[in-house]
UniProtKB/TrEMBL annotation:
CDD domains: crotonase-like. Transmembrane segments: none annotated. Its EC number is 3.8.1.7. InterPro entries: ClpP/crotonase-like_dom_sf, Enoyl-CoA_hydra/iso. Pfam families: ECH_1. One of its GO terms (biological process) is fatty acid beta-oxidation. Coiled coil: none annotated. This is 4-chlorobenzoyl coenzyme A dehalogenase. One of its GO terms (molecular function) is 4-chlorobenzoyl-CoA dehalogenase activity. It comes from the Bacteria. It is an enzyme of class 3 (hydrolase).
């Protein structure tokens, strides 16, 4: 039996691969715990400057494994406990100062939307589709969908997805702000490869530059709801001052000054 999640770190990039392709990478108990462990490991590793989330097979993530819920779980309490485990991984990513990119080829549905929105930059396939579909099986949003989807697309658009069985196209997902860009042409496998390549390019761009500053910019945006407007301004002032005093900024500022002076 293969591992439900693959995790590796290479040259500062932590790669989290959902690995239940036969179930469209839907979460069961094993994947839930592996997800929580992997996100904690990535964020807690000082060698990691960027995180990439991807899925094996023909889809990114279909949310929770409804069949497993119906046949392999003990009841309401276990469902709630497992949701909290997955939620802990989402919170770990969104509250961190490590930028996260998602490579979301194929279909993303249900709680998979929450996993996608836990990234800070999402690359999707030109043939990708996105939907809620919770009510199709009598369930309600989880995995941060009710919070992150509304924050991303606005309350009215979030309701359009949650109260219908509509599936957004890739271009609609970009228009709504769910995805940053849609890439790839040709068959599904070729498009999936293009999505992974582009997502890694984004991550490597962060790593090749001031990834500490990118991470702090992400943290400022992600955490802004915790503060009043004056408090947010104070946090911006504190953060830029801390960045200015760091080796990363000092080196880049010196290089900028040298280029500007023509020396």
């Amino acid at each position: 039996m293969s591992d439900p999640l693959l995790y590796r770190v290479e040259d500062g990039l932590a790669r989290i691969t959902l690995n239940r392709p036969q179930r469209l990478n839907a979460f069961n108990a094993e994947l839930a715990h592996a997800w929580a462990d992997a996100t904690a490991a990535a964020v807690g590793d000082s060698a990691v400057g960027a995180i990439l989330i991807e899925g094996e097979g023909r889809a990114f993530c279909a949310g929770g494994d409804v069949i497993d819920m119906a046949t392999g779980m003990g009841g309401n309490d276990e469902i709630e406990r497992l949701a909290q485990v997955i939620h802990s991984g989402i919170s770990t990513l969104t509250s961190s100062s490590v930028p996260v990119v998602a490579a979301a080829h194929g279909t993303t549905a249900g709680g998979g939307l929450g996993i996608l929105l836990a990234s800070d930059y999402a690359v999707v396939g030109s043939d990708s589709r996105f939907g809620s579909l919770y009510a199709n099986v009598g369930l309600t949003p989880d995995l941060s969908v009710s919070a992150q989807l509304a924050a991303t697309v606005g309350e009215r658009r979030a309701l359009q997805l949650l109260l219908t069985d509509r599936m957004l196209t890739a271009s609609e997902a970009v228009e709504w702000g769910i995805a940053a860009e849609a890439v790839g042409e040709g068959d599904a496998a070729t498009i999936a490869a293009a999505v992974r390549t582009r997502a890694e390019e984004v991550a490597r761009f962060w790593l090749s530059g001031a990834f500490g500053a990118y991470g702090q910019a992400k943290r400022l945006i992600r955490s802004r709801a915790e503060r009043t407007f004056p408090e947010q301004l104070d946090e911006e002032a504190r953060t830029i001052a801390a960045a200015f005093g760091g080796a990363e900024a000092q080196g880049l500022i010196a290089a900028f000054a040298k280029r500007s002076s023509g020396r």
